[in-house]
Amino acid sequence: xxxxxxxxxxxxxxxxxxxxxxxxxxxxxxxxxxxxxxxxxxxxxxxxxxxxxxxxxxxxxxxxxxxxxxxxxxxxxxxxxxxxxxxxxxxxxxxxxxxxxxxxxxxxxxxxxxxxxxxxxxxxxxxxxxxxxxxxxxxxxxxxxxxxxxxxxxxxxxxxxxxxxxxxxxxxxxxxxxxxxxxxxxxxxxxxxxxxxxxxxxxxxxxxxxxxxxxxxxxxxxxxxxxxxxxxxxxxxxxxxxxxxxxxxxxxxxxxxxxxxxxxxxxxxxxxxxxxxxxxxxxxxxxxxxxxxxxxxxxxxxxxxxxxxxxxxxxxxxxxxxxxxxxxxxxxxxxxxxxxxxxxxxxxxxxxxxxxxxxxxxxxxxxxxxxxxxxxxxxxxxxxxxxx
Length: 388
Prior knowledge:
Layout: H1 5-13, H2 15-23, E1 34-36, H3 47-57, H4 72-85, E2 95-98, H5 100-112, E3 118-123, H6 128-134, E4 138-143, H7 153-159, E5 164-170, H8 182-199, E6 204-208, E7 231-236, E8 249-253, H9 259-275, H10 283-287, H11 289-292, H12 299-315, E9 320-321, E10 328-332, H13 338-347, E11 350-354, E12 363-367, H14 372-384
Parallel strand pairs: 1-11, 3-4, 3-5, 5-6, 6-7
Antiparallel strand pairs: 2-8, 7-8, 9-10, 10-12, 11-12
Helix pairs in contact: 1-6, 12-14
């Protein structure tokens, strides 16, 4: 059977990820395996999450589990929260409920970009490329700043061409944990405005913010939507709830988008989500939004895990980026070879994510969503195979 070119391109773009997924089958049946690969939970779900779902499980009307689009109470709750959290006058009609950040990103790509358009994505960064290929869009990678992994505005400008339609910014950033400053985002906004004027075509910014509420050391967060009007925001509850299997997120329009253009975008959201295969969260998850807004993983405990691993691995000679946000730890692989390093750890029952899945073969990522006991069990192997 002949695959579509779209399917073939998406498969090739995500091949490093799928290959690693398949390799994880080696963990099956092994006792005392320490899985530090993905941001999955390793403890029982948050009581607040369970309570919110339980409170809405019993039907209150015949249509309780009927087809749902973006429910008003969920959108109203989110808009009010964004007004406080980001200081932006977001309105409920600016919010579209989606199946996690995946759904919001897919919606954003199709809302403002056409087949053949280019989308500038950060490197190392999350798995945008296969989603773009599946939408007949062209990923163009722009490296983050060497060593610091800060946002490199000049690299983004160099990546822009007449076909550029969207620039993606992920802060706090996966996999690096960097949180970009307001000054850097203002510089980016100035550059995008100039590039849009020069090219005669509006360049949009997609602000990928699923880790927005997971930050350390009192570090402030600025959304690009506060700096550049032509911004779309995607968010996922799966991170702050540590429940990625419960698909709940949203796409929000910056309220600074001029009214006429924002009205067009609002009107396009519902039919586009329907056309994408009814891309709305399940009814139960939407009912739970008002209660879930105040539910969070233990950020103090997460900070302790970060500090413990940064100190222990630093003493072992690892070169690390101290994460300002997210629940990941990003470091240089000993010898610059992530594949060999990850394989050696796996022989000891410790699984970490190689930087190859982020097009960065000289690095690795550890998920801090593991329990403290799991992290302690991993440390001997990490020390033994470390650069020290």
